[in-house]
Amino acid sequence: MASLQISSLLSNTFCSTSSSRIKSFIHIPKKLPIPFSTAPNPKPSRKLFEELNGFSHTIPILQDNSCNNNTTSNATIKLYAIVEAVADRVEMHHNIGEQRDNWNTLLLNSINMLTLTAAAMAGVAATIATGDAPLLALKLSSTLLFSASTGMLMVMNKIQPSQLAEEQRNATRLFKQLKSHIETILAIGNPTEEDVKDSMEKVLALDKAYPLPLLGAMIEKFPKKFEPAMWWPSKRNNSKYHETNKQHGMNNGWNEGLEIELRDVLKVVKENDMKDYERLGNLVLKINKSLAIAGPLFTGVAAVGSACLSQDSSWGAIVAVLGGALATTVNAFEHGGQVGMVSEMYRNCGGFFQLLENSIQETMEEDEEQRENGELFEMKLALKLGRSLSQLRDLARKSAYSRVEGTTTDEFASKLF
């Protein structure tokens, strides 16, 4: 019961003060009136009575911050707004990725069924020896089905649904990564307007690299040359590192040995990993182009063959059936094997190594005070390459030996891709 009186006393004291600091302690009278409970025959214990009767402790009162809602900085509020927008983009890209993956399956099954049905009709029409009406019906039906599959296949090869789905999966992963990065900044505390600007630039760069609409903004699926994806702003901002290191008086963890190690690792990344993914990316791009042309070509030839079906000649039926079979095989290999998805995977991996190269080069070009902590940067680099710190240093040592001997390192930098 005494606690109720104390709480009411404290609440009255808080209400009487708005922004001024309350006295650091309150003296409670020794003899407190104890209100009786409504329950019959209350029997408080002697120990409780003695504690309440001799109660003379001081209660510390903290400053009332309930009226001080302006303590949260504008940068923090803006970062929370960006986090909400990023979370919404994660959900959008995830949902659209699933939808486009369904497109790939449904369109492939539909086109193959149309093609096989048309080929079967052309084969049946070739076996009819008499009757112009059945032959005409089968011939027209087969021609229409081949023409429809040709048109649908041209659209499917143009948009490459498997590649679209992979783009959305990559965008979902990168937006989640950005969301975690912003939440880390908020957890560390003291965000600045530079953090807000940097986060906004990263969001807009991702929107540009992985657009959601198809018309007018879709990424070119068959470029002339393989180019890695680019989803980061063109200029990095490291002012936060400079401010943090200056406040704490750190030497920033950099030394000449670490710089040499990073240059050796970068040499392996450029000579082995990036060149290998560029070679594979160009190879898959050429295969995808060839298959995208061959599929509609076979169905178009089959449509012409089915339109020329007659009782006097069997070459039309042969062309139609053979063209349908070849078109089905090509489609199954291209879209069932998701060659477009593989092409996008290589494009994303090439972008990963390009970002890694840019990060190392930009860091090395900066003043030592403005860099991110050297030990932290080395640890991040090792994790990105799927290596431990000792494995990363061993790789740098091998690269240094190969440079002295004039040979190339027979090992890739990344163990993840």
Write a structural description.
- The protein has 417 residues and is mainly α.
- 69% of the residues lie in helices and 0% in strands.
- This is F-box protein.
- InterPro entries: Chloroplast_duf (IPR027949).
Which geometry do the CA atoms define? Answer: elongated
First and last CA, distance: 68 Å
Can you give the mean pLDDT? 81
Beta-strand portion reads under 5%
Please work out how many helical segments DSSP would assign: 12
Oligomer: single chain
Query: Which structural class is indicated by helix and strand composition?
Result: mainly alpha
Radius of gyration: 35 Å
Largest sheet: none
Q: How many domains make up the coordinates?
A: 2
Low-confidence stretches: 1-70
- What is the H/E string? HHHHHHHHHHHH
Count of DSSP strands: 0
Q: What is the share of helical residues?
A: 55-70%
